[in-house]
Here is the input.
Amino acid sequence: MRKGRRYVIGDIHGCFRTFKYLVEEELHMKPGDTLFLLGDTIDRGTGSKEVIDYIRELAAIMTVKPIMGNHEYMMLRSLEDEDYFHIWTLNGCAKTLISFGVSRFMANKRESVFQIPNEYIDFIQTWPLYEETEDFIFVHAGLDPHAKDPLSDIHSLLYRREEDYPEDIVGERRLIHGHTPVPLSSIIERLKTPGVKVLNLDGGCVYTNYPGLGVLVALDLDQMTLYSARNID
Here is the structure.
């Protein structure tokens, strides 16, 4: 018999205060619970280091299962590939590096990536590209039904926007993902749709200037109850 509750949270993007509020004040998570995170915990927001620190803090008292998002992937690849660092600079890396103590004048220089302590790099390198249970499969972006092996297709797992999926892999389960920001109203409506197989939980927390976005979203996986918190960062 399963112990504790199970939750999944969408893209955090460095919004530490909002993340902490959602976990502690809305979900009231406690030891014995399980938390899945859909990737893109870093970049764009100002608290990326704090988000990772909090994930590690939570992991000391409960089961936390973060998966790799395209932003974590860009960070890791930047350590070995200058071209990837250029891509990362176009996707919010400066705020992440500044959160690790890098000067804002140096935050667009590749050598700054090596100032991120190894313990953080080592931790994020352990994150898988997907997680699965008997009733759900969690990916950051999507699964390509046309790929030879959808669960090994890095590009679709990290970047896919389409919501079709390989039925033989998903089966009777539900596919939970993030990556593409959608309004909270759309997430609520999708959850109410009978028989829905794919749920996008990216409420665009960091995008506070866009109508309908600026919300961090969580789902109780056992009750299928939605929770949310407006950005307070």
Observations:
- The chain has one domain: 6-230.
- Residues 104 and 147 are 41 Å apart (CA to CA).
